[in-house]
């Protein structure tokens, strides 16, 4: 498991995960309140399943590996009153921004090219509910 620790000097930050296995997990531990903007960069070819969770809240994220490369965000655990469990749409408080990027960080359509990555912006509502640890579990492509 990859473990990252954050301190106040890391804020604001983009957390970069490289040399990832196709199926894996990681944990990010904060030492205070999360910054208002947290960006994850996962160097994976696909993103057919990503679970982002903490003790109080959990999201599942997926990107189709074929046209039209639809994004799916589903809330599986949530504090009362924040959002309804189930699918999220753009504009919902727990919608996760996901973008494939090339090695130079430019947007690309579809899946990231070789040495590219997924950029995932965690919603502020998730960070406020998350507590001090965020757990990630991913599968690049179902086999």
Describe it for me?
The protein has 143 residues and is mainly β. The chain has one domain (2-139). Helices cover 5% and strands 41% of the residues. The strands form two sheets. Strands 1-3-11-5-6-7-8 form a seven-stranded mixed sheet, with no helix packed on it. Strands 2-4-10-9 form a four-stranded mixed sheet. Strand 6 (58-63) and strand 7 (71-77) form a beta hairpin. The protein is globular. The two termini are 21 Å apart. The model is unreliable at 1-11 (pLDDT under 50).
Task: Draw up the topology in text.
Elements: E1 2-5, E2 13-17, E3 23-29, E4 38-42, E5 49-53, E6 58-63, E7 71-77, E8 86-87, E9 97-101, E10 117-122, H1 124-130, E11 133-139
Parallel strand pairs: 1-3, 2-4
Antiparallel strand pairs: 3-11, 4-10, 5-6, 5-11, 6-7, 7-8, 9-10
Short description:
By secondary structure, the protein is mainly beta. Helix content is 5%, strand content 41%.
């Amino acid at each position: 498991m990859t473990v990252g620790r954050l301190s106040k000097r890391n804020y604001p930050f983009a957390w970069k995960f490289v040399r990832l296995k196709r199926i894996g997990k990681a944990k990010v531990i904060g030492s205070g309140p999360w910054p208002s903007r947290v960006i994850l960069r996962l160097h994976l070819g696909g993103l057919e399943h990503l679970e982002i969770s903490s003790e109080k809240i959990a999201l599942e994220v997926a990107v189709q590996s074929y046209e039209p490369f639809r994004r799916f965000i589903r809330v599986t655990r949530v504090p009362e009153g924040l959002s309804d469990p189930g699918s999220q749409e753009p504009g919902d408080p727990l919608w996760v921004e996901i973008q494939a990027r090339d090695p130079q960080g430019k947007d690309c359509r579809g899946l990231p090219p070789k040495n590219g990555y997924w950029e995932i912006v965690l919603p502020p509502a998730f960070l406020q509910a998350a507590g001090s640890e965020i757990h990630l579990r991913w599968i690049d492509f179902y086999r």
